[in-house]
Amino acid sequence: MRDLIVQWLTEATSSFWKSSLSIDQFITALQETFHMVFFAMLFGCIWGFIQAIILLVSRPNGILPNRAIYHILNPIVNALRSLPFIILLIAVIPLTKLLVGTSIGTWAAIVPLTIYIGPYMGRLIETSLLEVNEGIVESAQAMGATPLQIIFKFILPEARSSLILNLTTATISLIGATAMAGAVGAGGIGDLAISYGYQRFDTSVVILTVIVLLLLVQIVQTMGDWLAKLR
């Protein structure tokens, strides 16, 4: 198996320099991928935390129970999460054009990526927050803490490690989604694999992009595991 992997790497590296793909194009594609992941994660985190906190406090046994808010927001989140990304990518084209003026390119991809990752992150964050021992919340309430203090001084700090691990999982999912976004000309590694690998029948370029994506995922997971262990 090891020899086969080495052979693939050797063949891919050799063919890479012989193909019409330049190193500058490869670096640009990497930068586009980082750009999409960074901004989609930024906007998705803001959306996800707001959504998770609202669901947490408004649930029937929450800090500020509100059945109306909970039963309206909960199915909306479920509906958005159930949409396959490739379908969502096409479905929100009118919204994308309205927000960024185009449906092609890196910035255009950030819109559906944010809509895709926001509800997903919200559920992961909500799960992390629900893992906090109820005794901590009860102790905070007994000390007279306000709902905001309970959330930001008790629940979030206690859920820190779980939050980091779940955000790491979301980041990895987002990296995969950015590769799919290449199917509609969003740029990045996925676009490179389709334009140069699939359409030009250059298997080595596909292999290179797969290797790069695997390395990105491994780096993100390793960093997430390390940060989760810090105190």
Can you characterise this structure?
With 231 residues, the chain is an all-alpha fold. It is built from 11 helices and no strands. α2 (23-58) packs antiparallel against α3 (67-82) and α2 packs parallel to α6 (106-130). The longest helix has 36 residues, at 23-58. It starts with a helix and ends with a helix. The mean pLDDT is 80.
Outline of the structure:
The protein has 231 residues and is an all-alpha fold.
Structural class: mainly alpha
Task: Kindly state the percentage of residues in helix.
Answer: over 70%
Mean pLDDT: 80
Strand content: under 5%
How many β strands by DSSP? 0
Q: What is the gyration radius calculated from CA atoms? A: 21 Å
Our measurement of the CA-to-CA distance between the termini, rounded to an integer number of angstroms, reads: 39 Å
How do the SSEs run, as a string of H and E? Answer: HHHHHHHHHHH
Globally, the shape reads elongated
Q: Would you identify the regions where 5 or more consecutive residues have pLDDT less than 50? A: none
Q: Specify the biggest β-sheet.
A: none
Multimeric organization: single chain
**What is the count of DSSP helices, taking H or I runs of 4+ residues?**
11
List keywords for this structure.
82% helix, mainly alpha, 231 residues
